[in-house]
Amino acid sequence: MLHFGWFVGHGFGVQGWGTPGYGIGYDWKKPALYQDAVRAFERSGLDLFIIEDSLTVPDTYGGSAEVSLAQASFAPKHDPLALVPYLFCATRHLGIVPTISASFYPPFTAARLLATLQHFSHQQLGWNVVTSGSDLAAQNYGLDQQIEHDRRYEKAEEFVDVVRRLWRSWEPDAIREDTEDGVFADHTKVHPINYDGEFFKVRGPLNTAPLPEEPVLVQAGASPRGKAFAGGNADVAIALARGADGMTAYRNSIRAEAAAAGRNPDDVKVLFVLKPTVVGTRAEAEDLRARRRELTQRDIDSQLNSISYLSVIDFKKFDLDAPLPELHTNSNQGTLDHFTKAGPPGSTLRQLLQARSGGAGDSIIGTAEEIADYLEDTGAQVGGDGFLFSGFVDPVTVHGVLDRLTPVLRRRGLLRTGYGDGGFRRNLLDF
Length: 431
Prior knowledge:
Blueprint: E1 3-8, H1 31-43, E2 48-51, H2 66-70, H3 80-90, E3 95-101, H4 107-120, E4 126-130, H5 135-139, H6 149-167, E5 175-178, E6 183-185, E7 195-196, E8 201-202, E9 216-219, H7 224-233, E10 236-239, H8 243-260, E11 269-279, H9 282-293, H10 297-311, H11 333-340, H12 349-357, E12 363-367, H13 368-382, E13 386-390, H14 395-411, H15 424-428
Parallel strand pairs: 1-2, 1-13, 2-3, 3-4, 4-9, 9-10, 10-11, 11-12, 11-13
Antiparallel strand pairs: 5-6, 7-8
Helix pairs in contact: 1-3, 1-14, 4-6, 6-7, 7-8, 8-13, 13-14
């Protein structure tokens, strides 16, 4: 059995824009769309729903926001944290995971907000901790550019440490609610943390109630420093990886980092991002792959705008029919590496785009049985732990994937048929 989840990525703001069913029966600005989606995820036995976030309107590609706004890519979007209570109202078991930037959130604010949300849930909350590599985002928070890549992870380590110390600043039995003695909370069990580190100085204690269970920490670290952070801190590590060998190598590295940090490697679930398109027949799949390889200018702009923003490199300046030069970034190093290796060595930029569009890398096109074959075989080779489906949350996308795939996965014993009552963390540790 494998764990499965859903990741809504850079198109979070305008769900389904550019697809034939866009806007039919829903308003992307209202919570009902997202509530309908999480109900479908829970019916299908998924373990978690991750809501990506970014903090800018990208204009790296060609020095303009034209493509970002024309294609609703990265903007506009809602703040995911404000959406979370609406999703709790629609579910009981599904893990809801908003994104928090360790680069820009004050840890006291993050700790208080997340603790409050966890109390509002059935122990369903997670937090996807990111280090926000964008210089554009940094400029929205008073900086000229983002700090150096590995330093951002050092800051994130301190951020997570402070948040957890604040959560633990109330002892579990601090609240007495003793009406006879007139004591609501025992002051001897509520403690300042007096944290004075390199990046943060926080007195504490937190002024919310103690948590029965801390939110599940999710992290996507692909660089060596990022993997060390994930192995040392994450309950769920998410990754882009190419092929079973790449997935196995990544999972082994995360488990090794967890062991080096004194943790049980089995406590870190590694989920690989996959964008599935489920079709009715093999012929339909082949036709769709061929059509996607025939890139339109919109396809080119869409992919290059995305990688330009994520890498802080303007890909508009490169010749489509020449191999890329050696590239380096202070931003999302793993994402850039994944993009540049979508095709064989020496591939031109156009060939890399065609490979990605035709179903290479983190995208897969096939019948429900074919995709289930891939998930079953790859999961067995890698040793677990599962997959994170990537896509819009509009009805056409969600039901187009899950209505066909869920029965096949359950028939093969790969997908849970029910949940226990222990909450999100317990669900992850079921297998």
